[in-house]
Amino acid sequence: MSTDTVAIFDTTLRDGEQSPGASMNTVEKVEIARQLVRLGVDVIEAGFPISSPGDFESVQAIGRAVGDAVVVCGLSRAVPGDIERAAEALSTAKRPRIHTGIGVSESHLRDKLRIGRDEAVERAVAAVKLARTFVDDVEFYAEDAGRAEPAFLYRMVTAAVAAGATVVNIPDTTGYTYPGEFGALIAGLFEHVDGISGVTVSVHCHNDLGMATANALAGVAAGARQVECTINGIGERAGNTSLEEVVMALRQRREYFSADTGVNSREIMRTSRLVSTITGIPVQPNKAVVGANAFAHSSGIHQDGVLKERSTYEIIDPVDVGVGGSAIVLTARSGRHALKHRLEELGYDVPAEEFERIHTAFLELADKKKEVYDEDLEVLVGETERTLNEVFHLAQVHFTSGDPGIPTATVELVTQSGEHIIDSSHGTGPVDAVYKAINRIVNVPNDLTEFSVKAVTRGIDALGEVTIRVTAEDGRVFTGRGAHSDIIVASAKAYTNALNRLLVSVKPTTLEEL
Ligand code: KIV
Ligand code: ZN
Q: The whole model's pTM is what?
């Protein structure tokens, strides 16, 4: 039996970024885009260009960075200004796609758009036609299709296809459907939409009832040949379909679906770690495919079975998703060339100046912890990137603490113009004292809402990585990260990082707000 190819449309940088606190800057987005290319996705949805100058810039930068390796897509509403802005942002892309669309459920037509069905169809047709004047590849989305009346959905999709859409996206925007129902909705397209065989049907599912992956696969079983998904399933509310789940489900059950993807599954774990590190959104331990426990067996019966024959209790070989760790361990004696070579193997193409900084940080770390693993290197690269273009740079931090004793901290921050500012404070603990001292200098109102610390690798000498979230006065959430072998220093770095992000951010507008 022949195997069809299902295209993977990754929307980590657009829908995934809509998770609270997941906002990323352009450098971070380009880094993820490069990794998505190594992973072998077919389409990267790089942003929503009209929503903010930052999104516009990221779409342009990603277009430049990925060349013709992948299709680069920009989102727009069925509004001329959005489409023109998306086209402008995509001017750097070798393989551009405009993604445009409109709501199709009664709820969206009546309560959000306040228009009738005829007008919605007219706007959709005009949008697709306008987008086609800029690019040959236009994807049409029928927002909230999961709650729409199927007959109207089919009428809308028929009109979009006739207007020139090359891909039609059927989103279950609110995560409302269940697999049988969603599969039937997709199957209906092939019965009721003229011209459907000439376009790609795409599925885009949200996870409000935990059905996102199941619904996407039901869509594939019914004939969809593109799945929209995010790394680790991050996204609006309960998230989107997880890329890794869909890819491994199709790989494991290729015969059942008569379909597979072109993804290099061995890059899955690394991509998952990178996205988690950059967004600050941890992966739950029991998450399918990429969770820390996904390949852990604790019961004696299971352990006995796996030792005799892995497949007794394990349907995925961990090696196939990049679990197993690298055999390469660097030490202080490894030298510049070995470090550069390993970074290249890990996919980092760092400019000379940045390499010098990473090398210095590597030597400091190797002195302290003797063996430096890939995970440590990934953190060092992240640390170096975070210190580029900072509003405030943490030059030094000192603290005392104890019981009894008054936790006290002194920090020195350097501004972009080179001014050195020193201040001190006491607090309920050393982290509190450090944060209060930083606040006295930066002076921007915020609430610390989350604080977590994890060891990057095993052992008492491991790097500690601190991830925090602060909420600004206008309710926006910013994530900050910092790594150091001393967790109080890592905490100071994480807080400075979050405040820097808050200070430079321009409020983007989400699709829901527009
Ligand atoms: O969930 C949704 O409907 C979307 C569309 C904009 C594709 O994200
Ligand atoms: Zn969505």
A: 0.85
